[in-house]
Amino acid sequence: MNKQVSNVIARQIGAYTSAISSKRFSGAAMKRAGRICSSCKAPLPPPHTSGEKLCEHCRLPTKIHRIFMSFIFHEGGWRCLFWEEDLKTHTPRVVTFREPGKIHETAVRGHCDHESRQALDLAIESGQGSLWLNLSDEQILALRRGNR
Known about the structure:
The protein is an alpha+beta fold and 148 residues long. It has helices at residues 2-24, 27-32, 101-109, 114-126, 137-144, and strands spanning 65-74, 77-83, 90-97, 128-135.
């Protein structure tokens, strides 16, 4: 009985010290340890192997299509045009958003890189801007279908 109690106490102490030590990790150390996403800083599921990792949300799809999205505030809405990678032809879909939050959502869904997402706020404040999106096969098909 004494041995069982000491095992339980040892496990509780081990769990407590691992919880405390994980809280002491800095953000950079947690990225290097593979505990948080290196892009959005969301916690990653175990097992935690060393090295910077991306979460499911930030990981790029296997086949990506680069699309350039330009947007401008016009007549009470944000008009968005999508251009092919050659920047000469645009897709048939033209989207108008009423609120700038939808542009942020498009950037997240389009796997836009972290630096571009940070610059997006400045572009929205100025009333126009652009960014590169990395779309999956399903997303590019929906975009090329045009407006419904």
